[in-house]
Amino acid sequence: MLISLLMQKTIMNKNTRGRNISFVICMLALLFLAGCGDPVTNHKILSTIFDGVPSLPAENEICEEYYVARSEAEAVGLDLADSGARTSRSSHKPYDEKKCNDCHSNDKNQNDGLIVPKQELCGVCHTDFIQGDNVHGPVAVGDCLACHLPHSSNHKALLIEDPDLICATCHQENRLAAAMHDRFTVKVISCGECHDPHSGDARYFLK
Question: What is the pLDDT of residues 167-177, one digit of tens each?
Answer without folding.
Answer: 989 988 887 77
